[in-house]
Amino acid sequence: xxxxxxxxxxxxxxxxxxxxxxxxxxxxxxxxxxxxxxxxxxxxxxxxxxxxxxxxxxxxxxxxxxxxxxxxxxxxxxxxxxxxxxxxxxxxxxxxxxxxxxxxxxxxxxxxxxxxxxxxxxxxxxxxxxxxxxxxxxxxxxxxxxxxxxxxxxxxxxxxxxxxxxxxxxxxxxxxxxxxxxxxx
Length: 185
Description:
By secondary structure, the chain is α+β, with helices and mostly antiparallel strands. It has one domain: 3-Layer(aba) Sandwich (Protein Transport Mog1p, Chain A). The protein contains two helices and twelve strands, in the order βββββββαββββαβ. The chain is globular.
């Protein structure tokens, strides 16, 4: 699969809109569009507040606040959150310990959730949560935990949530997102 399989051919115009459903609290701002690849079906988005760049399918929207970047599909069924993680602050020794702690905490709070973690060849960790209860249908959530090279107490976390019935598609999208992820350490 490619980003085109998740995109809407809008030449990136969706990234110029803010979601009208956002309340009047802490107002997010639009994220910076660095490039549009219409042929590839994605836009390169920079979340300045966390110094992370991601590629998102065309037709999505993206905004950020002071601690995270957020992206979502037009129908809001696919949702992406990216933020920095201070593993020591979270009580973890490193990325692996953080992934294990988060898995345990989610399983304890939501007993029906199944979770599995894998260390990837680049040293990052992919955690897959299945049967995550929500207000609608159950969801599958993918966490990519990445440690800062040379500083294992710092990292980044990219979370993608999708409808449970679309787990395979979500997994493929997560692989695409991971390939294009760029963290300015």
